[in-house]
Amino acid sequence: MTLFLQNARLIDPERLTETPGNLLIEAGRIVALGDIAVPEGAEVIDCAGKCLAPGIVDLGVKIGEPGERHKESFRTAGRAAAAGGVTTVIARPDTLPAIDTPESLEFATRRAAEAPVRIRHMAALTKGRDGREMTEIGFLMDAGAVAFTDAEAVTTDAKVLSRAFTYARALGAMVVGHPQEPGLSHGAAVTSGKFASLRGLPGVSPMAERIGLERDLALVEMTGVRYHADQITSAASLPALARAKAAGLDVTAGVSIHHLTLNEFDVGEYRTFFKMTPPLRSEEDRLAAVQAVADGLIDVICSMHTPADEESKRLPFEQAASGAVGLETLLPAALRLYHAGALSLPQLFRAMALNPAKRLGLAQGRLAEGAPADLVLFDPDAPFVLDRFTLHSKSKNTPFDGTRMEGKVLATFVAGVQVYPHNEK
């Protein structure tokens, strides 16, 4: 099928440009774009001057299969992703049981086929994510694993971790770490400080993140492994990251959209939908993270989509589950940074689409000839009030419930096929 998208505002994260133009799709790929004429026989879609960008590549999404399908299934996560302009989901292995064998990975891959978007999987770095014995990294790569991580289960044994890093380096695998010092962060619910003390909540210093990052970076320097820090959320961690990059280490870093748009005071009167891992930081840390994204020091913006059922959130703050859903709210939340003048649209899509795709060796994330036609058409200025019960995710634990937001997805395309239609409501 030949599809012609005309009168679009083309957002190019590679060239960091916004230009008016058209885009032509054939056989699931972009074949031409810019000031081009409509070919004979093509299906035409008028974009009406709205933004057309590469589909988002969301690195670090939790899906509840296997084991927690009541929180999120591949089908509901896929629908939520399509509605949010996410065309490629990179799923975490923190399932029950963990995705730590080729058999469990193949099961998840088969189940993911029912989703309307692309879903790729990370596998566990250690068996059971318990930090004692590395997984069969080579076999898991053969089965389709795009990276290896124990997610929030931080390995405390540096010798085990160094061996896993060395093995991953030999196979060319990428490791995704969660920079935290587990002893300091154990049992913490918020970031330490005056607010935590006034609320009587157990806190953790942002230094726990820096200590964990410094440990991981030392092991990266020792082994030469490709490494990605899933979330860098504090200003104290940024100099270590900058030094590692300046030294030529193969290191990148991400940050969740919640840590870029919310701060510790949003917890307010013990609002459990704002309980995250790591916890929300100070406004100074938030601004430092935003600037790091603008400067390219932090490479990736992700949703860190973590579904949690009502029962696990309707608990005292200290006992409530951490995390929030974010597949559908990633783009409108990110557009807060655009409307505030902190980041341009090409910068946003560099961090949400181009950089995660490049880091994982995927062809997606580009608005260029020959690239897969995974696209999102959106109106960055359309206002709406978010109602969490309208979300496609099974779990509704979003911190943005009742929030006035700007930016609506009008259409999502995967390989040139429209998987999310324009919604008039």
TrEMBL record:
Which UniProt keyword terms apply here? Answer: Hydrolase, Pyrimidine biosynthesis, Zinc
Q: MF terms per GO, please?
A: allantoinase activity; dihydroorotase activity; metal ion binding
EC number(s) for this protein? 3.5.2.3
Enzyme class comes to hydrolase
- Which CDD domains does the record cross-reference, listed alphabetically? DHOase_IIa
Q: Which SUPFAM superfamilies match?
A: Composite domain of metallo-dependent hydrolases, Metallo-dependent hydrolases
**Residue ranges of every copy of the Dihydroorotase catalytic domain listed in the record:** 49-234
Q: Which InterPro entries match?
A: Amidohydro_3, DHOase, DHOase/Allantoinase_Hydrolase, DHOase_cat, Metal-dep_hydrolase_composite, Metal_Hydrolase
Occurrences of domain Amidohydrolase (ranges) = 342-420
Q: Which Pfam families match?
A: Amidohydro_3, DHOase
Asked if the keyword Zinc belongs to this entry, the reply reads: yes
A biological process (GO) of this protein is: pyrimidine nucleotide biosynthetic process
| GO CC, one annotated term | cytoplasm
Q: What is this protein called?
A: Dihydroorotase
Give the organism the record lists.
Paenirhodobacter ferrireducens
The root-end lineage is:
Bacteria, Pseudomonadati, Pseudomonadota, Alphaproteobacteria, Rhodobacterales
